[in-house]
Amino acid sequence: MLSGSCRKSCVVKNLFYRIDLTKIEGEGEFPCPSCGNIISPEDESNLNYEIIDVKTDSQGRLKELLIICKRCGSKIYLEGFELLDELENLKESEGIEEETEGSPI
Fold first, then answer.
1. Where are the domains of the chain?
2. Alpha helices in 2-52 (DSSP H)
3. pTM given for the model
4. C-alpha to C-alpha distance for 79 and 100, rounded to whole angstroms
5. What is the pLDDT of residues 27-67, one digit of tens each?
């Protein structure tokens, strides 16, 4: 319950941000736009952020993630996963080429 003085002067905000992963450098880590808490896909501790929602396309490929920063409570939409699909497709096509290069005709 809020204290008497806080009821009138305190404002509780749920801030929403959108981050395009194609526009960040590095290995996918970025600071929370609100508090600067480092959010990294390598962090498996679940201490810095939590995945709230996952959106996929009709083929099950990742389209968007909604995460929440555990330090400040900001909600962050992550987009830009299309490059992962392109990279995966490139690796698959290179794998097919490698297989056919060594095969006798």
1. 13-96
2. 4-9
3. 0.69
4. 35
5. 889 999 999 999 999 998 989 999 999 999 998 889 999 99
Nearest alpha-carbon partner for 1 in 99, 10, 58: 10
* CA triple 91-97-99, angle to 5 deg: 105
| Residue whose tokens read 């600067």 | 36
Phi-psi region of 73 (alpha: psi -120 to 50; beta: other; left: phi over 0): left
Which residues partner with 39 through β-bridges? 30
SS3 letters across 57-75: CCCCCEEEEEEEECCCCCE
Strands (E), 7-100: 16-20, 30-31, 38-39, 49-56, 62-69, 75-79
Asked if 28 contacts 49 with a C-beta cutoff of 8 angstroms, the reply is no
